[in-house]
Design a protein that fits this description.
Blueprint lengths: L9 H12 L5 E5 L3 H6 L3 E5 L3 H6 L1 H8 L3 H27 L5 E3 L4 H11 L3 E5 L21 H29 L7 H10 L4 E3 L16 E3 L15 H8 L5 E4 L8 H15 L3 E4 L15 E4 L4 H4 L5 E4 L3 H10 L3 E3 L6 H11 L13 H13 L1 H14 L6 H10 L1
Parallel strand pairs: 1-2, 3-4, 4-5, 5-6, 7-8, 7-10, 8-9, 10-11
Length: about 400
C-alpha cells in the first residue's frame, strides 16, 4: 500500500515483482493514475480514489508550492494530506480484505496498521524515506542540514507528531468501523516502536548508511528498482536523437510543479547551450518544453524508462526526489540536483557528500548561468563520472528484495 507521486509508487513495482518471482501473490494498492505502471510489472493492482496530480494543481496545492518557509510548507502539506487520507481509507480497507500480509509505505502506514489490527493481518513497513528519529541527521522532509544530535532527534519527533495529526480522524473512524478500542495515532506509533515493529527501507547503505542509534527492527535493504514492461524500449525519436550526437544531458523535475514552466524551460535551454551540451528535457508534471525552434540540439520527451535513458546520458539534472536520485545513481552518471521542496535538499546534500555532483542548484535561486556552470563542471570533470560509476557498481550488488522475502518466510 502506498500513496503519493510516481516516485512513491515505482519502487514498489520492483519489490512486488521480486516477491512475485519468489512465489507470492502480490497486489500494489495505490492511485488509479498508476494502474498502467503497476500492470507493466506483472503484479496485481487495486486503485485509490485520490489523484495526486490534481491535488497539486488545486488551489491548496498552488499555495503549498508558493510557501517559502519550510515549516509553513510542511504544515500546509499536512493540511492537504489530512483532507485526502479520509477519502482513501475505505479503499485501503476494501483492498486489504483477504490479504495475508500488508506491506505499508510510509504515506499510508498509520491507516494500514489500523486495518491490519482490525483484520488480524500482520503488517510490515516498506519505506522509501527514513522517518525514525536519529542523532545523525535532521528529518529529511524538513530539507535542512543537521542541527546536532539532540535537536535532530527532537525535530524528528516533532515531525512524526505532526504526521500523526494527518491520520488522526481517518484512523479513529477506521477503528470504530473495525470494532477496535479507541487509541490515538501517536500512542499506537509509540507502542509499535516499543514492540520493534519491522520497517524495511528501500535505499542503499552506500548512499545513506543506517544510523547507529536506530532500533534493531529498522533495516536498510538497498534500492527496490522499478520494474517496467519486459519489452519496454525508448521511442524511435529518442533513439534517433541519441544516435545523432554525443550523449546529451537529461533535465526533468518528475512530479514537482513550478510556477513558471515557460520561463524555467527557457532558462534550462540557455543553460545547456552555455554548457555546450545537447539536452533531453522531460515535460513531467512541471510542463517543461525545450521549444519548437530548439535547433536540433534539444529534444522534449514525455515519460520514459529512466533505466533505459539515464545510462546513455552525460549527466542527469533532476529534482532530487528519492526515486529519481536512485535512478541517476544506478546509471552511474554525474548529477546536478535542482531541489524543489521537502526531502530534495536532503538527498542533494547526500549526492554532494558522495562526490557525484558539483553541488545543487536550488529551483528558487536557479538562473541559466548557475545551472549552466554546474552542468559544465559535471560533464567536464572526470572525477564526478568516476565516482558515480563506482557508486553504481556498489549499489548494484545489493539484493534489496531478499530481506523482505526472508521476513515473509518467517511469518509463513
Amino acid at each position: 500500500m502506498t500513496a503519493g507521486s510516481r516516485g512513491d509508487v515505482a519502487p514498489y513495482t520492483g519489490l512486488g515483482h521480486g516477491l512475485a518471482s519468489g512465489g507470492h501473490d502480490v497486489t500494489v494498492v495505490t492511485h488509479e493514475r498508476f494502474a498502467g505502471l503497476v500492470a507493466d510489472a506483472g503484479v496485481g493492482f487495486r486503485g485509490l480514489p485520490v489523484d495526486p496530480r490534481a491535488a497539486l494543481a488545486s488551489h491548496a496545492g498552488q499555495d503549498l508550492h508558493a510557501s517559502r518557509n519550510a515549516a509553513v510548507k510542511l504544515w500546509r502539506l499536512f493540511g492537504m494530506a489530512r483532507e485526502l487520507v479520509g477519502e482513501m481509507a475505505g479503499a485501503l480497507l476494501a483492498a486489504a480484505e483477504g490479504a495475508e500480509v500488508l506491506l505499508l509505505g510510509g504515506a499510508v502506514a498509520p491507516l494500514g496498521q489500523v486495518i491490519g489490527e482490525g483484520l488480524g493481518v500482520p503488517t510490515l513497513g516498506a519505506y522509501l524515506q527514513p522517518l525514525a528519529p536519529t542523532r545523525e541527521f535532521a528529518p529529511p522532509v524538513i530539507g535542512t542540514g543537521s542541527w546536532g544530535g539532540p535537536v535532530n532527534r527532537a525535530a524528528a519527533r516533532a515531525v512524526n507528531a505532526g504526521l500523526d495529526t494527518v491520520f488522526r480522524d481517518a484512523a479513529r473512524d477506521l477503528r470504530l468501523r473495525l470494532g477496535l478500542e479507541p487509541r490515538g495515532v501517536g500512542a499506537a506509533r509509540r507502542a509499535r516502536d516499543r514492540a520493534d515493529w519491522p520497517v524495511f527501507h528501500g535505499f542503499s547503505r552506500h548512499v545513506l548508511p543506517r544510523p547507529a542509534d536506530w532500533r534493531s527492527g529498522l533495516t536498510v535493504t538497498g534500492y527496490w528498482w522499478p520494474r517496467g514492461a519486459p519489452d519496454a524500449r525508448l521511442p524511435d525519436e529518442v533513439e534517433d536523437f541519441l544516435a545523432a550526437g554525443p550523449p546529451p544531458v537529461y533535465v526533468g523535475l518528475g512530479s514537482a510543479t513550478v510556477p513558471d514552466p515557460a520561463g524555467l524551460s527557457a532558462a534550462v535551454v540557455r543553460a545547456l547551450r552555455a554548457a555546450g551540451v545537447r539536452g533531453v528535457v522531460q515535460r513531467g508534471w512541471s510542463g517543461l518544453d525545450a521549444g519548437e525552434a530548439a535547433g536540433g540540439d534539444m529534444l522534449t520527451v514525455g515519460d520514459l524508462p529512466h533505466e533505459l535513458l539515464f545510462p546513455r546520458t552525460a549527466a542527469v539534472v533532476h529534482h532530487a526526489g528519492a526515486g529519481t536520485t536512485a535512478a541517476a545513481l544506478r546509471a552511474g552518471v554525474p548529477a546536478v540536483p535542482v531541489p524543489v521542496q521537502f526531502d530534495a535538499a536532503f538527498w542533494s546534500r547526500r549526492l554532494t557528500a558522495l562526490g557525484v555532483t558539483p553541488g545543487p542548484v536550488p529551483l528558487r535561486t536557479l538562473t541559466a548561468g548557475a545551472l549552466g556552470a554546474a552542468v559544465r563542471r559535471a560533464v567536464t570533470d572526470p572525477a564526478y563520472a568516476a565516482r558515480a560509476a563506482e557508486l553504481a557498481r556498489r549499489i548494484g550488488t545489493e539484493d534489496a528484495v531478499a530481506p523482505v522475502r526472508t521476513a515473509l518466510a518467517r511469518l509463513a
